[in-house]
Amino acid sequence: MTSPLSDVSFLDDIVVPSGKALRVHLVGVAGTGMGAFAGMLKAAGPHVTGSDENVYPPMSDMLREWGIEVFTPYAAENLERARPELVIIGNVIRRVNPEATAVRERGLQQMSFPAAFGALIAAGKHSVVIAGTHGKTTTSALMGHVLAESGRDPTFLVGGVTLNYGGNYRLGTGEHVVVEGDEYDTAYWDKGPKFLHYRARTALLTSVEFDHADIYRDLAHYESSFERFGGTLPADGWLGVSASYPRAVEIARRSTTARVATYAWDRGADYRGHDAQFSDAGARFRIDGPGESVDVLLPMSGFHNLENATGVYAAARSLGLSPGEVAQGFATFRGVKRRQEPRGEIDGVLVVDDFAHHPTAVRETILAMRQRYPTRRLWAVFEPRSNTSRRNIHQREYASAFDEAHVASIRLPEPHDQVPLDQQLDVAAIVRGIASRGIPATGLAEVDALVALVAEGARANDLILVMSNGAFGGFIPALLRSLVVRANTAGSREVSGGEAG
Length: 501
Prior knowledge:
The chain is of the alpha/beta class. Helix content is 35%, strand content 25%.
């Protein structure tokens, strides 16, 4: 395969000796996005190194597998070892970081991760960007898979490990590049949203609800980022937007000269998904588009996923794929790690991992699990970990977000230096609110206590749905171990009792 980076003439200040690979160093390489980008760059041809403060599995294992040398901790001396012609700075890196400081002092060429992706990967290709508050990762992965399954050989970069491809990225030779478009800020010197750099020609806007309270003042400020994004699409571009979010439709129509199409689940839109039948195999449903109708199978559940899949169908049709090609891609999609991912079933207790942290995502994920496993008692265990979820912005919404659960447990968030006391989420009030709606609820600060509570209270045919955008202090591995111990102990008692009798 010809390297997409064989021509680096767009970087006018970089001089690469003839016959040598471009040397690229990533500062903050252990992040999900940066690590995947490092792997993608290495596969494309450059010599890649990286540095970070803490490097741990799974990213440490992946970087090692890709042959990328990683230096830790951050230090100016790392640049002497890496000898880069280009340094890519992650958005977690602050100006005072010793490597960031050394890059400036030495006058080395530097780029942000989004700008580098736009220049090194998306340039010259048809860029398909998936934006929105919710559902970006799974929708991006599905979009990339549909293109790959249809033989278009796309490149893609998403924020989760795709189960079809065993990683966050795919490097193809086709004309399309799919990327998850994040509205978070870009770098310490560029506070604009990342997705402005991705050169979108086709895009989806899945939803707009207030998020990222650490960088956006209010909803209007947050919405302005999507308005700017719409303005980046060319006049011959295409933007699909969820009709379930009227403000998103308004933003789309106001901000772009590209063609706008709407999609939705079971409501009026240009593309409408409807008539779902759920089973362990996923969801069978119908999509109606302009002058056409097709029946599809998606191995997932949840109306939010079906709506996002309807958006992918619309986008794929705009790119020239046939209804049959899209349906084939849907049917063979295996999903993304940590999105409704079963982690183990022990003694009849099924443990599922999900990334949900916004109240809308919590509500929709719980509903999706009820649809897929209607006969199981569902115990929702939630960690409010993100900056926004730790705040009382969505205090009232969280109480009703658990309505479809049978039992709920919430971890009390650890103190956060960026969240003032008067803005912190009141978990005790949420627990009382959930209980007042007839659902047994608890709030505990310690992970070990939560593990003990769930391991002791779980029973056969339960579904334990664990929701967090982080590692949750190792809750899931600890719970699985406790369930194994419980099962073994019960088995030992049964054997002992039998022998005694």
